[in-house]
Amino acid sequence: MSRSLPFRQIHLDFHTSPAINDVGSAFDPGEFARAMVKSHVNSVNLFAKCHHGHLYYDTNRPERHPGLSRNLPLLEQQIEALRRHGIKTPIYISVQCDEYAVNTHPEWAALQPDGRPAGAGPLQPGWTILDMSSDYQEYLAEQTAEILEHFRPVDGIWFDMCWSQTSSSESAIRGMLKESMNPENAEDRDKYANLVSQRYMRRFHQMAQTASPGALVYFNGRKLPRLRGEIDYFEQVEIEALPTGGWSYQYFPTNVRYVRNLGKPSVGMTARFHKSWADFGGLKPEAALIYETSQMVAHGAACCIGDQLHPRGTLDAAAYELIGRIYKRIEEREPWLAGAVPVTQIGVITPQKDARREFGTAIDGAVRMLSQLKHQFDILDQESDWKGYELLVLPDRVQVDAAFAERLTAYVAGGGKVLASGHSGLSEDGSEVIWKPLGVTAHGPSPFSATYIRFGDSVAPGAPQTDHVVYDRGIRVKAADAQAMAHVVEPYFERTYLHFCSHNQTPSDRLTDYAAAALTGHVSYVSYPIFSAFSTHGNAPYRTLVKALLDRLIEPIVRCDAPTGAEVTLTRQGSRTIVHILYFSAERRAPGLDLIEDIVPLHNVPVTVRTERCPGAVTVVPEQRSIPFHWDNGHITFTIPVVPGHAMLAIE
């Protein structure tokens, strides 16, 4: 990691309509700072410019908010008051959302191919999106230069709404033609939008670093799985993930496992709102905020809680009482968080190469499955360093060309293990094995959209002895240089309008010699898109099969006899290992809304951790309560008396 970040941050939104005329009228700098100090906050993102396009500091620019008194330099007073207490004050600037600019210069709007502006329509309350290939970029550069000069030195600049926005405006078309791109081609429009983004990020990053060397710079809205190519423009990586605001509880733990390997510190961002941003009057249950911030630190990230300042400049007292309890808890744990890095054993290779996409269902399913199995893992791309990983997972559709196959072969020759599934290591049509160490022969996709897996006690002891349905089409393979660990059972026929049976998939008919899973000494292969299937259907036998294969390939770093919903992570802080165990239950309380209101503790949870030497103590922290342990032949075993949602154990 290049630097440490404050663990207890606030992102203080202030998107304030020009129709509001009493902006900051109740603001009290001393009261503002005291509230942050009392809430154990040590960094606040403060607004210079909002999505409405207005400015909140002492400036002669016409964009200054019309409802902000000329006698009130709001941002200056906020910064001065917070710095007096040692609280960091990065400055927020909205990029592609600026209602003032687009109303003043309609030609700066990003246009869809049919000529309509991108974003909200003319009769909709929402944001119109700006085109960064237009003269708007110069306008934004002038604002940014003034902010950097006026507040020099800044702690950081937080640029928002920075995705690669396609546009068919006159300026965008001219730019594409200059780059020998075809404006009529959707892929070229995407390519040009990304080029524009790369150029303006490079430009604004350099502006900030020149004015305030060492300042934190972040561009929010980029595709996190594709961040490797632009990481030089960032001092940290922030994962905006309001679970109740559309991101879900899976978004943060998936993305943090990738971005934490890019050489920059990471921050998890949630919010105090019941739903999403600017949910005025919405207050999240305390149990949910405990979980969300605990999950952040358990993965080695700092915490940020979002809020929105009332237009009059007052903080919500109840919100900051809640935030204070949350951040007091984090502050008490910081001695075991600072400098702690995740300990991982497995690398999951992402199949995505398309810069427009997020992680797909294969990665989602792998994260769900490996987390439920308590494995310690990262998400990698094909450029990542594999050194230190005992096993690589190639989920469902990892394309393996000649160079990648050679690298995989060398990895296995050096003692590494591989678990592949679906089309990974096969040709696109599933008829040929590209990476021969899979130990199977391929015979193309199954003619059946749904088939069944049969495995016995030798593979999965205790599993129900039945033919387990797989709802997704697999590849027909036969074990050649590998041992078949499970077999495919095919149905009577494919379900069509000509012949079907009952309500759903056709029942099983015949056991085949096609392998559902195969295993060599170092490599295992599953002939189904097992991870995507697990993401889509959540069928437990899929996890049972993968667990059986993993157990034959590696010995897990940690074993924990806890419910599948419990999350276990390991971090290392010098010679100290910290075990985090989290158990929170998100319930579907409303359509599209998963909510955590209650903490149901676990009791007497057994844990075994691989460790080379016998430790001196195992301690529940921050309580500093020692618990008994047993060490034998490289393994330490202990029982956690209680997991009250989140427990931390330090192995010294």
Quick synopsis:
By secondary structure, the chain is an alpha/beta fold.
Structural class label: alpha/beta
What radius of gyration results from the CA coordinates?
A: 27 Å
Q: Please give the CATH class of the largest domain.
A: Alpha Beta
Total strands? 31
Helix content: 10-25%
The DSSP helix count reads 13
CATH fold title of the largest domain: TIM Barrel
Main sheet summary: 9 strands, mixed
Distance between the termini: 23 Å
What percent of residues are in strands? 25-35%
- The largest sheet has its strands arranged as 11-10-12-13-20-19-18-15-16
Write structural notes for this entry:
- It is built from 13 helices and 31 strands.
- The protein is 25% helix and 25% strand.
- The chain folds into 3 domains: 8-341, Glycosidases (TIM Barrel); 344-553, Rossmann fold (3-Layer(aba) Sandwich), CATH 3.40.50.880; 558-651, Golgi alpha-mannosidase II (Immunoglobulin-like, Sandwich).
- It is an alpha/beta fold.
- The strands form 6 sheets. The chain has a 9-stranded mixed β-sheet with strand order 11-10-12-13-20-19-18-15-16, with helices on both faces.
- The mean pLDDT is 96.
Topology:
Blueprint: E1 8-13, H1 29-38, E2 43-49, H2 74-83, E3 91-94, H3 99-104, H4 136-150, E4 156-160, H5 170-178, H6 186-211, E5 216-219, E6 237-240, H7 251-259, E7 266-271, H8 286-298, E8 302-308, H9 317-333, E9 341-342, E10 346-349, H10 361-372, E11 377-380, E12 391-394, H11 402-413, E13 417-421, E14 440-445, E15 451-454, E16 468-470, E17 475-479, E18 483-491, E19 508-519, E20 523-526, H12 530-537, H13 540-553, E21 558-560, E22 567-573, E23 576-582, E24 587-590, E25 593-595, E26 602-610, E27 618-621, E28 625-626, E29 629-632, E30 635-643, E31 646-651
Parallel strand pairs: 1-2, 1-8, 2-3, 3-4, 4-5, 6-7, 7-8, 10-11, 10-12, 12-13, 13-20
Antiparallel strand pairs: 9-22, 14-17, 15-16, 15-18, 18-19, 19-20, 21-26, 22-23, 23-31, 24-25, 26-30, 27-28, 27-31, 29-30
Helix pairs in contact: 1-2, 4-6, 8-9, 10-12, 12-13
